[in-house]
């Protein structure tokens, strides 16, 4: 399964990031994004919530069951080995973090999951890679830019990068052409106003547009 998920990230390039969305709306969003071609979804841990572990586990479990065979579900904003275990038990297949923590990476790999820690500097990127990360998330990418990614990829071309933070339909192609294997897409694919309006068709359209960019760049 690990190789299947890794291949999906590299081939499909779009990871939908879902924060603070649960229950029926989460299921409807997943169905809408899948209809548009997105098959990777990250459910994030809300670190400020007192019931963060059970609440996130329930969301991942429900989503993994509902979308089994269609979508790869992972956990995001994972900061501790305990959260890795909680996500794994709930059915997560990949673990994404905003930071580089070798303990989190080690636990992720021990459990046979795909590891995507976050990094901002070359030192963090190398540390993450040497600790066993499958991909390194450049975060926050909007503050670093595509020129930064191109420059670090010159000496670090053995590392596979995913970009997150400010990636939009307007700049997604530029990130892919700069060398990113994919991107975590947040607000554009979980627009609160659209969710409140129940405009699921628009989410499908947006998902399809992102997937079309990947096809355009990679053929």
How would you explain this protein's 3D organization?
The protein has about 220 residues and is an alpha/beta fold. It is about 50% helix and about 15% strand. The chain contains ten helices and nine strands. The strands form two sheets. Strands 3-2-1-9-8-7-6 form a seven-stranded parallel sheet. A two-stranded parallel sheet has the order 4-5. It starts with a helix and ends with a helix.
Could you give the topology of this structure?
Layout: H1 2-12, E1 14-18, H2 23-35, E2 40-44, H3 52-66, E3 72-76, H4 81-90, E4 94-96, H5 102-110, E5 114-116, E6 118-119, H6 122-130, E7 136-138, H7 141-153, E8 161-164, H8 172-178, E9 182-185, H9 192-197, H10 200-218
Parallel strand pairs: 1-2, 1-9, 2-3, 4-5, 6-7, 7-8, 8-9
Short description:
The chain is α/β, with parallel strands linked by helices and 219 residues long. It is 51% helix and 16% strand. The protein has ten helices and nine strands.
């Amino acid at each position: 399964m690990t190789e299947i998920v890794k291949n999906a990230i590299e081939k499909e390039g779009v990871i939908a990031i879902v924060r603070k969305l649960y229950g029926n709306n989460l299921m409807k969003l997943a169905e809408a994004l899948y209809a548009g071609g997105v098959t990777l979804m990250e459910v994030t841990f809300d670190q400020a919530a007192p019931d963060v572990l059970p609440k996130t586990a329930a969301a991942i479990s429900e989503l993994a069951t509902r979308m089994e065979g269609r979508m790869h579900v992972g956990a995001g904003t994972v900061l501790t080995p305990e959260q890795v275990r909680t996500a794994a038990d709930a059915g997560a297949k990949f673990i994404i973090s905003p930071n580089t923590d070798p303990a989190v990476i080690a636990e992720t790999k021990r459990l046979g999951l795909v590891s995507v820690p976050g990094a901002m500097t070359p030192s963090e990127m190398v540390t993450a890679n040497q600790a066993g990360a499958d991909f390194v998330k450049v975060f926050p990418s909007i503050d670093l830019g595509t020129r930064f990614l191109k420059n670090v990829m010159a000496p670090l071309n053995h590392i596979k990068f995913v970009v997150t933070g400010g990636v939009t339909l307007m700049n997604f192609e530029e990130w892919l052409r700069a060398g990113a294997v994919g991107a975590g897409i947040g607000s554009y694919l979980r627009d609160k106003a659209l969710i409140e309006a129940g405009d699921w068709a628009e989410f499908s359209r947006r998902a399809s547009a992102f997937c079309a960019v990947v096809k355009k760049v990679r053929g």
